[in-house]
Amino acid sequence: MANSVKVKKRNSVRGKKIRYAVVGLGYIAQNAVLPAFAHARNSELTALVSDNPTKLKKLSKKYCVPHTYSYEEYSECLESGEVDAVYIALPNHMHRAYTEAAARAGVHVLCEKPMAVTEEDCQAMIAAAEKNNIKLMIAYRLHFEEANLRAVELVQSGKLGEPRVFDSVFTMQVKPGNVRLQKEKGGGTLYDIGIYCINAARYLFRAEPEEVFGAAENSGDPRFREVEESFFATLRFRRGLAATFACSFGAADVSAYTVVGTKGVLRVDPAYEYATGLQHHLDIGGKKKTVRFPKRDQF
User: Among 20, 98, 191, 196, which one carries the catalytic annotation?
Assistant: First the structure.
């Protein structure tokens, strides 16, 4: 049975900390999400949900979390009155079902990226949130990262002139057996890391692509029997803006993007990391400058 006491009515969160249940205790939850609650002023961790009893016992003790639930007990968690919101850190193919269940219970949702594995699933999640008047947000940490906010300001300020070209490379080596290599769980490079490149182009250009060409590639590595090893794309925006990117699970670690304007160039390298600080490398009119942003908790 769930380690919780069920109550009929959820407490009001106005003026109080938002009580979260973290659903899914994989790598991102253990290494980033759970530790971040120690620094959160307006949030507190009150429940964990997992199908792994060992993880539940170990992590609830480590982070002093009072309530634990299995996946089968998820509905009990939602109706317990002990949580105001859930942080969904599950495999991609599970996002829709767990979001819809939370919405029906009137519980707000912060969901890991990508939102879901199909457009239909995404639309269903949005519809469920609207129908039940709950907040649904995708946990895209870089929207709040200083290096990216400063990059947006710089591009929009005109110091680089008119932006013309965006180019990005995001690559890494993924070990065999990793969930990101499993097709049925929404794996693949485009869903997992390609979205960083796409999103960066969108928020730097402040525009949406009008035409897209993309191609998936495999080198024959047995790790990639189910999903693409690499993905390459070109995105055409309005007024001549263009973006290209490459992402791969079979190449050395690279995390960078470049914006080329009519007067200067901004390269952010590293650009998408959370384990290290980020850096700006500027070249405007031949004057070069490097700006370092110290590591901070992005979660």
Answer: 196
